[in-house]
Amino acid sequence: MVAPRALISTTQWMLLITQLCAGWHCTDLEMPDSPIRNLMLDQWKMELNWMSSMNFTEDWCSVTAGDFSMTVMAEDMKCTFGNTAPPLHNGASFSVTAVNMNGTYSTVCRYIPQGINGSAIENFSCVIYNVSLMNCTWQAGRDAPEDTQYFLYWQNSRYDDAMECELYITDENGRNTGCRFQDVRIDVNKAYFLVNGSSKDSLIQFYDEYIQLYKIENLMPPSNITVNCDEIKNDCIIQWQRPQINHSNQDKCFKYEINIKYKDNPEGKPIYASIQEGGSSHTLHRSNARKKHHLKMRAAGSTCLVSPTWGEWSVPVEFGNEEIISSSAWILLVVAAVTLLMAIITILFCKRTSCWEAAFPQIPGPKNAFNGLPDTNPELMESKIQTITSENEEIILVSDVVK
């Protein structure tokens, strides 16, 4: 017994195939009497087949959609357009021309997609990230019925089988509005995406698109970025490894943008910016060896099949000596401040206690010869001084006579 989910998926697939086959079986020939008839297109292989009642020496096919037109040679009443064909959701014209000795014959068929106008999805876009993950998103058609549900099918190349999305992204109403893919392989050929819709009461138009997968890849930044500086020459060697991708392993496929700013001004103008083609190292001459620097890098495709759009910036890498110098100065400043504070606290404490006098005793001054004299008027003091002086002189004279 088939599981309900598998049955629903199978039903959806059969509905899709039925709608596409009905749409691509050409019944509106512009030249109904042509010996070329029963035009049928296999959309997944992009092969146009037909039948003919005559033999031809040469035949070819053409497809025109909007401004796009291409022609391919036929073989055994079959033309293969491959991945170079245009999207068909806006309609297309197919023609077959054949030549033999009796003349030239052709048949032209115009295909117009079936379904309600405005019911196909809008704003379809995809992005590849983290090497092998892919997200595709879209919006429901503006005129799609409320019960419309969408289903995505895709081929990595025309040689692969068509696959339905395994992990849908849904909105609040349960409608599919995107798909997540894992283990995506980027191929040289274009990938083909088709989003079909179903509704209970109406036929929904499909949307299809060809995408070169490498062009939608969001490149990861370079890895293992290192900076080694010569403190004497002031030169720094920047080294890195190319971004990881799963379809190229050559350094020449990339170009790199190097951006350097001072650490203390991360939002300011870069002091150094450079773009380098290929390689895995770059030499930088520092203009200021006493400043801490922030370096970041990103990559883009230069040659090969690598996305030409700049990828994500790397995490900033620091180099320089400013942090060491600043730490030493900060430590010295803290030690000086603590020492000064302790000295002030000690002085204040000692002044409030007797330890100050014990540590620093006062030195006595010289004894005053006139200490204890009564406070008299200046004239009396002068007379006494003169009397003392005269007596001293007499003592000195008597001493000289004795000798």
TrEMBL record:
<keyword id="KW-0732">Signal</keyword>
<keyword id="KW-1133">Transmembrane helix</keyword>
<dbReference type="GO" id="GO:0009897">
    <property type="term" value="C:external side of plasma membrane"/>
</dbReference>
<feature type="domain" description="Type I cytokine receptor cytokine-binding">
    <location>
        <begin position="123"/>
        <end position="216"/>
    </location>
</feature>
<feature type="signal peptide">
    <location>
        <begin position="1"/>
        <end position="23"/>
    </location>
</feature>
<dbReference type="Pfam" id="PF09240">
    <property type="entry name" value="IL6Ra-bind"/>
</dbReference>
<dbReference type="InterPro" id="IPR040907">
    <property type="entry name" value="IL3Ra_N"/>
</dbReference>
<feature type="domain" description="IL-3 receptor alpha chain N-terminal">
    <location>
        <begin position="36"/>
        <end position="109"/>
    </location>
</feature>
<protein>
    <recommendedName>
        <fullName>Granulocyte-macrophage colony-stimulating factor receptor subunit alpha-like</fullName>
    </recommendedName>
</protein>
<dbReference type="GO" id="GO:0004896">
    <property type="term" value="F:cytokine receptor activity"/>
</dbReference>
<dbReference type="InterPro" id="IPR013783">
    <property type="entry name" value="Ig-like_fold"/>
</dbReference>
<dbReference type="Pfam" id="PF18611">
    <property type="entry name" value="IL3Ra_N"/>
</dbReference>
<dbReference type="InterPro" id="IPR003532">
    <property type="entry name" value="Short_hematopoietin_rcpt_2_CS"/>
</dbReference>
<dbReference type="InterPro" id="IPR036116">
    <property type="entry name" value="FN3_sf"/>
</dbReference>
<feature type="transmembrane region" description="Helical">
    <location>
        <begin position="329"/>
        <end position="350"/>
    </location>
</feature>
<keyword id="KW-0675">Receptor</keyword>
<keyword id="KW-0472">Membrane</keyword>
<keyword id="KW-0812">Transmembrane</keyword>
<dbReference type="InterPro" id="IPR015321">
    <property type="entry name" value="TypeI_recpt_CBD"/>
</dbReference>
<keyword id="KW-0325">Glycoprotein</keyword>
